[in-house]
Amino acid sequence: MRLSEYDVNNPYLTTLVSSERITPLGWEAEVRHLVLRLPDIAFQYVEGQSIGVLAPGPHEFGATHHLRLYSIASPRGGDDGRGDTISICVRRCFSIDDISGERYPGRASHFLCDANPGDIVPITGPYGVQFEVPPREDANLLMVGAGTGIAPFRAFVKHIYQRHGAWKGKVRLFYGAKSGVEMLYMNDFRKDLALYYEQSSFRAFEAISPRPHYDAPPEIDRAVLDNAHEIWEMIQDPNTYVYVAGLMEADKKFELAMEKLAGSKDAWLDLKASIAADQRYAELLYD
Fold it and tell me: Do both 169 and 32 map to the same domain?
């Protein structure tokens, strides 16, 4: 769907509970973990869904709001388990004019990153179920993400280990970032995912950029190829679900690695199509 096709006529007015920066002060990338209190307990969501944030105007052409979608970063009960909050992961963004080179602040991201606890944040949704937790606890989960694409996987991991107590299938997370401090939810600022390292079924693999100052994408391909035997074994298992989220550049790295494992690009595309036809492959990508 195009953003203009989403129904935003009846927004929910949430209240910002907390806004926590999860990258270092002074670091180029400002990423925040925001917790919003829902006005109505009837607002129900599940892992893998998104919400729309309506940044208030006025904006260009008389628009009263600017809609931006964000993946939900909390499990269905919220970070506190009470069911009355929802969390999102927001990076302060800028756009560059192709002609003038002038930098413009992202309307939704700046609205959210500048908000203070107690401020009202209008949201809509929830929308879709891009990623869905498999019904069987012995299913294998292969998750590949970069940047704020980690958000739905944070929700996934929290859900399966908090709600189910354990997970019998393999849970493998390959996550890429420019540097170690940008490993969201796995750095010194927030170690949410590190809490599950003790789970025998969970393993996380980090991939960083070889040239972060030149915006080179993280080496997801190297992380995958370093674990080629297990990944290929999982991919061929009909009980494995594959989820890819985040930057398209990182997805390209993952695709290249899988082409090598499969023997050719065509062989991987055929296998990928087969997994997708079985509803076990999902992507949520952005530039």
Answer: no
